[in-house]
Amino acid sequence: MGFFKNQFSNVVEWEEFRDDMIFWKWSNREIKKGSKLIIRSGQDAIFLNNGKVEGIFEDEGSFNIDSEIIPFLSTLKGFKFGFNSGMRVEVLFVNTKEFTVRWGTQSPVLIPTPQLPGGMPVRANGTFNFKVSDYVTLIDKIAGIKQSYLVEDVKIRITSVLDQLLMKWISREGKDMFNLQANASDIAKGIQEDLDMQMMDIGIGITGFQVMSFNYPQEIQDMITKTASHEMIGNLQKYQQVSMTDGISSGKVKGGGAASDMAGMMMGMNMANEMMKNMNQNQNNQNQNSDQKPAANQNSDAGASSSSGDNKKPNFCPNCGAKNEGANFCPNCGQKLG
């Protein structure tokens, strides 16, 4: 008896587990008396009978099916194992973790913009996150006809509609078409909401959507970079100076030749001109400040100057020529001074 009992026993578990597998179905086999159910971390087990959910088990561990599982099944509570018969059911194992997937546009998305009649060609890339949110819907729409379901299947489904959503939300939130990254958060939020509504139909929830970068064609990117350089530098003269410096440092203007010497002379002359302009500007500012001095101060300064001029003592005595050091009378001949 013991031999036959062990012979009919089996283990119900996720036998073909992969990290990128969303669900896997244990099917087309009988569950015998004494069978074990094994649920590992990050897995849920759903018992199905004729496509109907009998019970959902979320705790990890090893369970005796006839004593710990069957009593909780909705319509199979009264099932009695016979010696030579078993119970034919399906067990759907679901991966409960949140998946993170990289995405990228396969071809440029043409975004309508007044600056370009044919539209702005934009590529984008980023990541999105999802997990199973509704077991009943998943079984009804996907698991009922598939043995397993992979992350790649979800990615294909999402990327098939992603170009349309990018066009919709870039047109709505891309206030500056040449700086879409500034509105990346708002664009991603709108796309996530739309994707979540669509994937809800198969029991999958979109828990996150991120746009890492927007990419333009090279000629448009060069134009954006050049425009940004003008705005940062402020005027054409300085832009020419920086361009010349970049040319020398990058090797486009070779050192040791006439071109390099001429570039150095031009840079030196430009720098000297700038210094002279700054000096002249400072001098003009000082003169303007001097001209605007209050009249009362000028009169006061003039009075002080006149008073100091009347009391000034000669350096030498006009009578004998002796040196005077500020005295009122000559120390040599007594002549009055001042």
Automatic annotation (TrEMBL):
Residues 281-328 are annotated as: Disordered. Residues 27-230 form the SPFH domain. Residues 299-309 have a biased composition (Low complexity). Residues 317-337 form the Putative zinc-ribbon domain. It holds the Pfam family Band_7_1. It comes from the Bacteria. PANTHER family: FLOTILLIN BAND_7_5 DOMAIN PROTEIN, ZINC-RIBBON DOMAIN-CONTAINING PROTEIN. This is SPFH domain-containing protein.
